[in-house]
Amino acid sequence: MKKRILSAFLALLLLCAALPVPALADGSCGENVRWEISSAGVLTISGAGEMADFEAGDAPWYASRGEVRKLVVSEGVTAIGNGAFSGCGLIETVSLPRSLQRIGDSAFDDTYGLKSVYYAGSVADWKTIDIGLGVSFGSAELVCADKTEPFSDISGWYHDYIITCYMADIVNGCGDGTFRPENNVTRAQFIMMLYNMGGRPPVSDTSLGFSDAASISPVFATAVKWGVKAGIVMGYGDNTFRPDENISRAQMAAFAYRFLRLGVSEATLDSLKGHNDFRDYAIIPDYFCEAVDVMANIGVIQGYPGGIFDPYGIATRGQSAAIMSRLLVALTELREQ
Q: Which of 166, 105, 150, 151 lies closest to 131, judged by CA?
């Protein structure tokens, strides 16, 4: 008798699982795109083609945003509209399809509860999506279902740092499917990374005052001009920039520190100053000490095993990606203070 009751109960559970979850609200949000919020708190966008654009707070599900904990954009949808999920602060997880080609401006503003973003494609696929202005997933983890690596040579300790910077458009590969993490980085290349992190703002086409300005490749010229105007690039005492010179670890710390100062208050920076305990601190030139101190104190620079910094050592592409990735985290945390 008990077995019959248990079997009937299991059958009932299976039947309930098969029944459609009732919708709390639904409607159209594009020519061939629909939306629906289930009683389980899942907002599903389905159909084919592009979602409509919205002003902040005007999306049709906005009034019910307090019910939504999960967002699912189904395969076939190619664009998320401007401002689409702005203010939906209780969404914790987002699932995005491989078919996605565009994420509109400010589509995820104030989604402060977001923890995870699942994408059906690969990292390389993600890079092809046109991501609009102001789109940021904050500290949410981005997980790609397709685990295909974008580069064939990044299996070392720097793997996650390189992936983070690649997805943020800070670094790129070498055109042959490699990243070459052990290659050295030049001064112009490092400034280019910072320029990319800063969103590549427009720069007026003024000439550079360096005596070797003609040797700066057009690929890096705009980034160097930006660096000069922003106070990141100082040049040498002989009025040269030396764009093709390999950047030292001390110079890398200084450039990164000056970039940090663009977005963090002086009061916050003052609280982060203080002598660090690198064993080779005495050989760090005085004009680099403040930068090295702050970068070390916030964990952007971690030094080598044995407690040395090696200020005159040459930075590699893998090390630069690590610095950039940690700098991204530091900027987010320090701006919130």
A: 105
What number of other Cβ atoms are within 10 A of residue 17's Cβ? 8
In order, the DSSP letters of 196-208 are: HHTT------PPP
Q: How far apart are CA 192 and CA 202, in angstroms?
A: 14
Reduced to 3 states (helix: H, G, I; strand: E, B; else coil), residue 237 is: coil
* CB-CB contact of 85 with 107 (8 Å): yes
Residue partners of 208: CB distance under 8 A and separation at least 6: 216, 221, 224, 225, 228, 241
Parallel, antiparallel, or unpaired for β 93-96 and 141-144?
Answer: unpaired
Is the full-model pTM beyond 0.85? no
**Separation between Cα atoms, residue 146 and residue 141, nearest integer Å:** 15
CA distance 132 to 143: 20
Q: What does DSSP assign to residue 147?
A: -
Residues ≥6 apart with Cβ < 8 Å to 82: 53, 54, 55, 104, 105, 106, 107, 132
pLDDT in tens, 235-285: 899 999 999 999 999 999 999 999 999 988 888 888 989 888 899 999 999
Q: What is the pLDDT of residues 98-140, one digit of tens each?
A: 999 999 999 999 999 999 999 999 999 999 999 998 888 877 8
Q: How many CB atoms lie within 10 A of CB 212?
A: 16
In this structure, what DSSP letter does residue 241 have? -
